[in-house]
Amino acid sequence: RICPGKYLADGSLWLAMSSMVACFIVAHAFDDNGNKIIPEDERMTGLTSRLKPFKCIINPRDETTRQMLNEVKHSHL
Questions:
Q1: How many C-alpha atoms does 20 have within 13 Å on its Cβ side?
Q2: What angle (nearest 5°) sits at the alpha carbon of residue 43, between those of residues 60 and 23?
Q3: Using 50, 70 and 90 to split pLDDT, how confident is the model at 77?
Q4: DSSP 33
Q5: What are phi and psi of 43, to 5 degrees?
Q6: Contacts from 59-62 at CB under 8 Å and sequence distance 24+?
Q7: Rounded distance, CA 36 to CA 32, Å?
Q8: Which of 9, 14, 24, 56 has its CB surrounded by the most CB atoms within 10 Å?
């Protein structure tokens, strides 16, 4: 048997990830000497397998996204 929510979960994950890629630039973080921090391909195990947390820089892709984030931030305080 297949999980009846599988397709809903797949679609929801696709929508969330594609929205983040469309709105944000995700880039390497830098150390104190200005060198790129390259994440290791290390995994955490458990019920699911996932990457260990790593440092990165996430910035809005454009001014429209930045304004939208500020509006949401101020409307929920």
A1: 8
A2: 10
A3: low
A4: T
A5: -115, 150
A6: 59/24, 59/25, 59/27, 60/23, 60/24, 60/25, 61/22, 61/23, 61/24, 61/25
A7: 10
A8: 24
